[in-house]
Amino acid sequence: MDDFEVSSKIRNYKVQFHLTNEKLEEILEGHDLVIADKAIAYKLPPKLPELIQLEAAEELKDLGTVSRIVEEIGAFGLNRQSRIAVIGGGVAQDIGGFVASILMRGINWSFFPTTLLAMGDSCVGGKTSINIRAGKNLIGSFYPPGEVHVFFEFLKSLPISLRVEGLIEVVKILAVAGERPNTIGTVEELLGGENTIQDLVYRSLLAKKSIVESDERDVGKRQLLNLGHTFAHALEEASDMGIRHGVAVGVGIVAASKFATLVGHKSDQELEALIRDLLSVLPNNLAKIEWRTFQLLILRDKKWTKDIATLILPLSSGIEAWSSKVDPLLLSMVEECARDAVLETLQR
Ligand SMILES: NC(=O)c1ccc[n+]([C@@H]2O[C@H](COP(=O)([O-])OP(=O)(O)OC[C@H]3O[C@@H](n4cnc5c(N)ncnc54)[C@H](O)[C@@H]3O)[C@@H](O)[C@H]2O)c1
Predict the structure, then answer these.
(1) Using the 8-state DSSP alphabet, how is residue 153 labeled?
(2) For ligand 1, is residue 117 a contact (CB within 6 Å)?
(3) Are the beta carbons of 217 and 312 closer than 8 angstroms?
(4) CATH number of 4-158, picked from 3.40.50.1970, 3.30.43.10, 3.40.190.10, 3.30.70.20
(5) What is the mean pLDDT of residues 32-49?
(6) Does residue 89 have its Cβ closer than 6 Å to ligand 1?
(7) In the prediction, which pLDDT does 248 show?
(8) I need a labelling partner for 176 at 20 to 30 A (CA). Which of 32, 78, 139, 205 fits?
(9) DSSP 306
(10) pLDDT value at residue 141
(11) In terms of pLDDT, which residue wins out, 154 or 134?
């Protein structure tokens, strides 16, 4: 597993892999401040630079938390040469990366992903996102870290549900890159040993590197990585974040597959089956979904315009973007697919 560099118009950055945590302390010593997910703070070396802890809750990925952290950092007296280390999952990354992007118009930061989703997906690509009342991830920046350090040991404490969430995003990336489900593996294999996970993370990041290098700003091929996300963001919000992101993406992929069939395309049955198998590992989710707001939430998708709806569909020919006029019939079809997917995979 070789380290590699991701080319970016903002700054190139290196992704480095570590099988043990041996070098963690030494690497952190090169930073002036650590922002870490509270849940993994106990795993960090005792000798650390200044430490700010955050709670990795989706409802706290907001401007209130950003403001609190910016003020705390201000009190440390950092300068433009300072380096921040951000340690945690996607929530810590989004908050820490956004903070780094606005402090003194951008200071250097490194990211240390600790969840499978962050290791296999979000740590490459340079996006940072913050939720506002009007919707999830509606503000943010493109601001890649100077370095990404994947320390696989962090995965040891990850509960199975979070492994499944990460695997859903990894399977999605590999599918967008053209890998067939039978070369990705069965659920048993995917949830098997650490070696399988490490190999999957590596393949997924290489695939993501290639996609984001060809479309960093998310105006072309990178949009295919949004497979399942139109449904997912609406489901997360309509359930008041009672359905977690990775789970919502899985349900969203099943819903998108149903939608593909509804509009006359041949959907990718094998990919849908693998995602269903992954979701079946999770316990029943009894979160209340506010279906009355669902269609309004769908309309807020960043890929959609006032008139044109865009959905990413898993077709037997590959992952493709599909567009059509926004109208009430289309919205009700989207909702119907989401409802069926939730009933079949989550609230079964
Ligand atoms: N910036 C991007 O490109 C990007 C891409 C995909 C998703 N995201 C965002 O990522 C977020 C989801 O991130 P996530 O799935 O990594 O979850 P998360 O950051 O919400 O963490 C999930 C839970 O796991 C805990 N945790 C973290 N590391 C752990 C570990 N090693 N062992 C045990 N528990 C651990 C956290 O404290 C939290 O309770 C969403 O907000 C999503 O929008 C961002």
Answers:
(1) G
(2) yes
(3) no
(4) 3.40.50.1970
(5) 93
(6) yes
(7) 97
(8) 139
(9) S
(10) 97
(11) 154
Instruction: For residue 1, give the amino acid letter.
Output: M
Q: Can you tell me which residue has the tokens 């008139």?
A: 307
pLDDT digits (tens, 9 = 90+) for 263-318: 999 999 999 999 999 999 999 999 999 999 999 999 999 899 999 999 999 999 99
Average pLDDT over residues 124-129: 97
CATH topology of domain 171-191+214-345: Dehydroquinate synthase-like, alpha domain (1.20.1090)
pLDDT by residue (tens digit) across 63-80?
999 999 999 999 888 888
Is 80 exceeded by the pLDDT of residue 195? no
Give, using CA atoms, the residue closest to atom 21 of ligand 1: 89
Do the domains spanning 4-158 and 171-191+214-345 agree at the CATH topology level?
no
Q: Closest residue (by CA) to atom 23 of ligand 1?
A: 56
Q: Which atom of ligand 1 is nearest to the CA of 129?
A: 1
C-alpha to C-alpha distance for 187 and 226, rounded to whole angstroms: 22
The pLDDT assigned to 109 comes to 98
* Residue spans per domain, the chain: 4-158, 171-191+214-345
- Asked whether the whole model's pTM tops 0.85, one would answer yes
CB of 345 shorter than 6 A to ligand 1: no
Query: What is d(CA 113, CA 145) in angstroms, rounded to the nearest whole number?
Result: 12
Which is the closest atom of ligand 1 to the Cα of 61?
Answer: 41
Q: Which residue's entry shows tokens 């430490």?
A: 51
Give one DSSP letter per residue of 248-278, joined into a string. Answer: HHHHHHHHHHHHHHHTT--B-HHHHHHHHHH
Residue 247 contacts residue 282 (beta carbons within 8 Å): yes
Would you say residue 135 has pLDDT above 90? no
Q: How far is the CA of 12 from the CAs of 5, 123, 144, 158, 348, in angstroms?
A: 7, 13, 8, 30, 45
Q: Are strands 13-18 and 4-6 parallel, antiparallel or unpaired?
A: antiparallel
Helix (H, G, I), strand (E, B) or coil at 50: strand
Closest CA to 120 of 180, 203, 33: 203
Q: Which amino acid is at 227?
A: L
CA-CA distance, 33 to 49, in Å (whole number)?
5
Cα separation, 159 vs 177, in Å, equals 27
